[in-house]
Amino acid sequence: MNTEPKSRYRKYLEIVTGSLEDKKRYRQYKARVKQLPENYRTAVEALERYLMYFGPGGESISMYEDLADLFEQSVADGTPIRDIFGEDPVEFVEAFLRNYPEGQWISRERNRFTSAVARAAGEDTAREDRTVS
User: Fold this and answer.
1) Same-domain pairing of 75 and 118
2) 82-123, pLDDT tens digit by residue?
3) pLDDT given for residue 10 in this prediction
4) Any domain includes 1
5) Cα separation of 108 and 105, whole Å?
6) 34, burial (CB in 10 Å: exposed 0-12, middle 13-18, buried 19+)
């Protein structure tokens, strides 16, 4: 990893566009997915669409890298797609998402909402407020 200080231009660029390192990692993830057999790639792309609505979006690149790892290993092992997802694909993806709670906007909003109600009720929320981003 590069330990040199970032240039002023690069700092500004990353404020506007997001982390360049994350963008590079995401492009690598997409290249990995492109190498999967068509049926596995179709399943990953469907999972990505679901994650765009209900997951952390692009905030958790490690989640996408883990997804690529899972499918690459499944291809190598000859694991059928149905065995990856089980009978209920939504149950699978919800369980998968629970491993990445820090990036889920819905989790942050639930925490924010709960803290706001507690404050409105006059309860001490000093501990909970620190966990809300």
Assistant:
1) no
2) 999 999 999 998 888 888 766 556 667 777 888 888 888 888
3) 67
4) no
5) 5
6) exposed
